């Protein structure tokens, strides 16, 4: 049974053109004028784009004494409702736990997914077992990205020696390391100082994680990756200092990627000064929201190409969960939602304002991500043979974002009240219409795991520290007798 998407304008990362698109067996089989099929989807007045890929989500994640409230059911419904057709979640072994055991738990949770998904594996501790399991994860489990937390001291954080060992292992395996870049030692010290001084409200969360904490860690991770001879992906880049480190590394020939979140692009630190405790606590995430100068830097990075991807770090907690931190901001579960809102918010605040072009929009929400995560051209492309994961985006359709109408399981939305344009008329997942004019038609369990191969780019990583790459053996004469 063939489906034809008719009369739309196809928008890819590099082209905009009028054509129909024919789908069969879940794949794009033909692109051209006047196509016919058994079923027709009218795309008049719409842009036909590769579905969004969110490279950074945490669904039903055990974290800070609780679980993030959106699971693979509500989370992937939210994704589809907003035009995102694939998510990449983080498999987090408890420190001491086997990666393969943790993966069984994640495989099990993900059986509920409404859209396709993949995993990143987190390196939350270091040992010979972890070193060995990384090979199995890459070669047998289809996961070629390893996440490292430089913050969350005492739980998820890894130290520089562990990071260097893991990055070097990634280099051998053709895998890409990811970092959450914040200096965890400094954060812990600042948190304690703030608490001692009686600053226990949600605003203190932001005070304890200034931009310098992120800039320092980003730069450190970049240099360590360079010494290990491996590219690096920096998650949730939120400030100029981190962006500057990424820009400089790229200029020096390193493959370093930066990922701003839609939250950091569109919400600022004033949210933490709202008088209402719940309002501010609901927006507690790491890194925290920043000021306008940092936001401008992130937008400039998307336009110029020094930052490549827009994600959500979707990690949603209910108001009741946020209240675990009344009296101690360190206990407020870190995280915000955004899966349903990423594309409409970026369209409204990016494309409609002229900050980025439509083609850049497709690049940063889908195509660049597919390329960096080695999913391209199966995902992120409108090409014959690619999966028919599509969003038919209606630039005239608008709504006001509200928790009352969202798919997410939580009781609020950090974008509440924002008027957005650019909503899906249709979302398609492997050719199946999963959203039609705001109505979800997807099925729990429709989503499939997408395995990812190791990277060709990794073995070609160039070190700018050439002096370290080949230690020379020196044939010495005249070795003096020991001084003892
Ligand atoms: N930051 C968050 O805000 N939530 C999940 C993990 C993270 O690093
Ligand atoms: Zn993080
Ligand atoms: Zn408020
Ligand atoms: Zn995250």
UniProtKB/TrEMBL annotation:
E.C. numbers: 3.5.2.2
Post-translational modification: Carbamylation allows a single lysine to coordinate two divalent metal cations.
Domain of life: Bacteria
Protein keywords: Hydrolase, Metal-binding, Zinc
SUPFAM superfamilies linked to this entry: Composite domain of metallo-dependent hydrolases, Metallo-dependent hydrolases
Catalysis: reaction(s): 5,6-dihydrouracil + H2O = 3-(carbamoylamino)propanoate + H(+)
The keyword Zinc belongs to this UniProt entry's keyword annotation: yes
Protein name: D-hydantoinase/dihydropyrimidinase
